[in-house]
Each structure stands twice: as structure tokens, then as C-alpha cells.
């Protein structure tokens, strides 16, 4: 992975884009500190899906579980209740 300053990226964006399109991520620094990363689209999309799945799993863990005495309804019973509640 290449590491480049933000000035280099601004001044040579076309060639940097070609590097990224070839599959190599590029880390971008500002004042010597890595601040962002440019990723190929497929890799970024996959990373974003994984991130969102992890956040959803974390959220679901905070949800209360069903009560042990809650009724077990069939799909038919659920549909019937939904239709009853519709105006």
C-alpha cells in the first residue's frame, strides 16, 4: 500500500486513481498523520457491507429477547392480527 501526502494526491489525482483502480489502496496523510484511505470500489463496498453488518449485529444484541411466556404464533395467526389492526 502506498502512503502519500494530501498535496501529492491533489496534484496527481489521475495517476493516483489509476493506482487505486489497479487494486492498490492508498493511504493519505495530512501533516504526516494518516487521515484517510482511498480504496478500489469493490474492496470499499465489501468493507462497508461488513461494517454495516457488524453495526446491525451490535444493535440487535442490545434488543431485549422475547419473553419466555410470549405466545408462539403461526404465520397465519400473525397475518390475521395484522389484517385485524388495519383500518
Summarize the structure.
The protein has helices at 6-11, 13-21, 41-62, 75-85, and strands spanning 2-5, 26-30, 33-38.
Termini Cα gap: 59 Å
Portion of residues in helices?
Answer: 55-70%
What is the ordering of alpha helices and beta strands?
EHHEEHH
Count every beta strand, where a strand is a DSSP E run of 2 or more residues.
3
Helix run count: 4
How is the main sheet built? 3 strands, mixed
Shape: elongated
> Which class best fits the helix and strand makeup?
alpha+beta
- The CATH class of one domain is identified as Alpha Beta
- Percentage of residues in strands: 15-25%
Unreliable spans are none
CATH superfamily of one domain: YefM-like domain
Walk across the major sheet and give the strand order.
Answer: 1-2-3
User: What's the alpha carbon Rg, rounded to whole Å?
Assistant: 24 Å
Give the rounded overall mean pLDDT: 93
Which fold name is given in CATH as the topology of one domain? Answer: YefM-like fold
| CATH architectural group of one domain | 3-Layer(aba) Sandwich
Amino acid at each position: 500500500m502506498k502512503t502519500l501526502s494530501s498535496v501529492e494526491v491533489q496534484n496527481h489525482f489521475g495517476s493516483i486513481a489509476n493506482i487505486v483502480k489497479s487494486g492498490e489502496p492508498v493511504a493519505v496523510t495530512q501533516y504526516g498523520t494518516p487521515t484517510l484511505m482511498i480504496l478500489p470500489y469493490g474492496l470499499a463496498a465489501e468493507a462497508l457491507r461488513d461494517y454495516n453488518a457488524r453495526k446491525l449485529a451490535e444493535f440487535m444484541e442490545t434488543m431485549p429477547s422475547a419473553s419466555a411466556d410470549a405466545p408462539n404464533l403461526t404465520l397465519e395467526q400473525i397475518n390475521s392480527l395484522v389484517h385485524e389492526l388495519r383500518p
